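Help needed: design a sequence for this.
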């Protein structure tokens, strides 16, 4: 899988990605089968592609940067993936409004903005909490720097688990 230089497109490490999917499938190995994913601030698309390889039915890759969106499309093409994916070249907030007004709902939402954009965590988590695109029981997972806490509660969306690994961390949220 290809990436771009610089820190704005920082793929989730292989180890952290493996941990993420181990956690999601720990109680139910088939938890991802037929699921709908939103890979927000998708970067290379590695998390969404991994979800697809583990049985997800549909992945929405949301990435505002043109070169990075093209990179996702290139990575999908190199893997021979052409169905069950949509690459949205929009900023996350426009994409969420567009998806919220459509008939789209998801099971898993992964967000990983560039670490320097700390405000994006609260904005995105609050937007997700107020949207209609989270199915009942949907999970929202935020990857962030270990030393940064994106927050515990965003309206009805509450963190129920914090997993730290190396310099990164994953915060798991669901509606209460």
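Sure. Designed sequence:
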């Amino acid at each position: 899988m290809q990436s771009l230089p610089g820190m704005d497109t920082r793929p989730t490490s292989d180890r952290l990605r493996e941990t993420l999917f181990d956690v999601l499938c720990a109680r139910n190995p088939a938890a991802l089968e037929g699921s709908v994913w939103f890979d927000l601030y998708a970067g290379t698309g590695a998390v969404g592609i991994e979800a697809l390889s583990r049985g997800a039915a549909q992945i929405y890759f949301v990435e505002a940067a043109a070169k990075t969106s093209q990179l996702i499309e290139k990575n999908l093409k190199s893997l021979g993936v052409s169905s069950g994916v949509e690459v949205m070249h929009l900023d996350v907030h426009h994409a969420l409004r567009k998806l919220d007004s459509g008939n789209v709902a998801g099971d898993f939402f992964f967000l990983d903005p560039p670490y320097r954009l700390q405000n994006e965590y609260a904005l995105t988590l609050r937007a997700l909490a107020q949207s209609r695109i989270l199915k009942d029981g949907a999970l929202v997972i935020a990857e962030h720097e270990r030393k940064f806490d994106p927050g515990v509660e965003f309206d009805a969306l509450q963190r129920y688990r914090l997993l730290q690994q190396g310099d990164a961390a994953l915060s798991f949220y669901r509606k209460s």
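The longest strand covers residues 134-145.
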